[in-house]
Automatic annotation (TrEMBL):
This is Carboxymuconolactone decarboxylase family protein. SUPFAM superfamilies: AhpD-like (SSF69118). Residues 21-95 form the Carboxymuconolactone decarboxylase-like domain. NCBIfam families: ahpD_dom (TIGR00778). Pfam families: CMD. One of its GO terms (molecular function) is peroxiredoxin activity. Signal peptide: none annotated. It comes from Streptomyces marianii. InterPro entries: AhpD-like, AhpD_core, CMD-like.
Length: 157
C-alpha cells in the first residue's frame, strides 16, 4: 500500500501536523504516565483501523516501558491481566471517546468516574486531549492510506 499523497512533504498538511504535534506535546506534559499514553494511542489506532499509528505507538510504548509490547493484549484489555486499574480506566475512556458515533451518550458517567479515581484534573484534561489528538492523527492516516511498519521508535518525538 502506498500513501495517497506525501502528507509530510505537503505545505498545508505540514502546517496541520505542526499544530497537531503542538497539541500532542501539550497533552503529554501534565504528568500522565508515558506507558498509559502509549496504551491509549494504540487502542484508538486499533479501533480506527490505523495500522500506521498502531505500529508506531506499539514501538514507542515498548521503548518507554522497557519491555516489548504487542498490540494484541491492548485490544483485549478487559480480559488481559497485564494492565493496572488506572490503565484500564484510561483504556475505557479512550474506547468510549473514540467510539462517540456508536453511542448517543458519548463517554458514560461510570467511565469518567472510574478515570477520576486514578487521575487528577490535569491528568484527565491531558487524557481527554490525547484521545482527541490521536483520533485526528488516525483519521489523517486512514484517509491517506498511510502505510504501517515504516517508523522507528521515537521517530516523531
Amino acid at each position: 500500500m502506498e500513501a495517497r499523497l506525501d502528507f509530510f512533504g505537503n505545505a498545508p498538511a505540514g502546517k496541520v501536523l505542526r499544530h497537531l504535534n503542538s497539541a500532542g506535546k501539550a497533552a503529554s506534559d501534565p504528568g500522565l504516565p508515558v506507558v498509559t499514553q502509549g496504551l491509549v494511542k494504540i487502542r484508538a489506532g486499533q479501533i480506527n483501523g490505523c495500522g500506521s499509528c498502531t505500529d508506531m505507538h506499539t514501538k514507542d510504548a515498548s521503548v518507554a516501558g522497557g519491555t516489548p509490547l504487542r498490540p494484541d493484549p491492548v485490544a483485549t484489555w478487559r480480559e488481559a491481566t497485564a494492565f493496572t486499574d488506572a490503565e484500564r480506566a484510561a483504556l475505557q475512556l479512550a474506547e468510549q471517546g473514540t467510539r462517540i458515533a456508536e453511542s448517543a451518550g458519548g463517554v458514560t458517567d461510570d467511565a469518567w468516574a472510574d478515570a477520576s479515581q486514578h487521575y487528577d484534573e490535569d491528568q484527565l484534561a491531558a487524557l481527554m486531549s490525547l484521545i482527541a489528538v490521536i483520533n485526528a492523527y488516525n483519521r489523517i492516516n486512514v484517509i491517506n492510506r498511510q502505510p504501517a511498519d515504516g517508523c522507528q521508535p521515537g521517530q516523531f518525538g
